[in-house]
Amino acid sequence: MARSFLLLALLGLCGLAAAQQQYSSLQPPTYTLELTFTINGVTGTPIPCNASNCLPQVSVPDHDSITVSYSGPVTPGNTISLMSCYTNSSAANRAWRKANAVINKDKQCNTGEGTPGKPFAKGLPTGTGSFKWTPGPNTPPSNYFIQLLEVVNGSGDDPTYAAMGRSAGQYTIIPIDSTPSWLMALTGVFCAIGPIVLTGFFVFEKVIKKD
Q1: DSSP code string of 94-128
Q2: Is the Cα dihedral 131, 48, 101, 114 positive or negative?
Q3: Do residues 37 and 171 touch, judged by C-beta distance below 8 A?
Q4: Mean predicted confidence (pLDDT) in 173-201
Q5: Which of 36, 68, 79, 98 has CA atoms 20 to 30 A from the CA of 7?
Q6: In this predicted model, what pLDDT tens digit does every residue of 77-106 receive, in sequence order?
Q7: Do residues 121 and 82 touch, judged by C-beta distance below 8 A?
Q8: Three-class secondary structure assignment of 69-88
Q9: Which fold has domain 21-174?
Q10: Which helix (H) or strand (E) element contains residue 68?
Q11: CA distances from 51 to 39, 40, 46, 59, 141 (A)
Q12: Which of 91, 70, 193, 199 is nearest to 140 (CA)?
């Protein structure tokens, strides 16, 4: 009985430690990341840019993609997870995107398909590898970077992390234009003929109908 209680207590402490693990425990980062973009069918690896006027523009409707290449130490049994994170400028003054030193409470990396609990890629091998990601329609339009976390083997639903890395480059998700093209064309037609219809109505009311 005493042994069972001790075992449960130890498991509880391990779970609490995992839930409260901070980014500082993974410093300095041991993984390097490089981003390659395929935009409008053209693939390239731009020089990392953090200014909004030079960020790669990733279009969700056009199925643009991002290939994340990573490099770090090989740890047998552990796996790699990748997630998208809001940039500091995109998270500023937005409580729902607020950064937190505790990894599993970090809302800055809580973005649609990309969260520490639900990354857009997981189970990847440690060491050197790559993953091609096509952002889905649930990815909010904003500026992002990519974060890597190495998950300790067997750490369960509340994972413990052994290493991390972040991309130097950033990118922008372009807003989806939800207005159908046919509606835009129809609006243009009405804008063109509207003045003619009004003029004809005015002439009919003031001239022809009066006579």
Answers
A1: -GGG---SBGGG-GGG-BTTB-SSS-SEEEEESSE
A2: negative
A3: yes
A4: 56
A5: 79
A6: 999 999 999 999 999 999 989 999 999 899
A7: yes
A8: EEECCCCCCCEEEEEEEECH
A9: S-adenosyl-L-methionine-dependent methyltransferases (2.20.130)
A10: strand 65-71
A11: 19, 21, 13, 18, 16
A12: 91
Mapping DSSP to helix (H, G, I), strand (E, B) and coil, where does residue 56 land?
A: coil
pLDDT in tens, 10-58: 344 444 555 689 999 999 999 999 999 999 999 999 988 877 788 999 9
DSSP state letters, 8-32: HHHHHHHHHHHHT-BGGGGPSP--E
Give residue 115's pLDDT band: very low, low, confident or very high (50, 70, 90): low
pLDDT of res. 123:
95
| Torsion, CA 107, CA 75, CA 166, CA 124, rounded to 10 | -70
Cα–Cα dist 19/12, whole Å: 11
Task: Report the C-alpha gap between 128 and 25 in whole angstroms.
Answer: 22
Q: Which helix (H) or strand (E) holds 36?
A: strand 32-39
* 143-151 vs 79-86, strand pairing mode: antiparallel
| Both structure tokens of 113 | 């398909």
d(CA 73, CA 44): 26
Q: Domain boundaries in the chain?
A: 21-174, 179-211
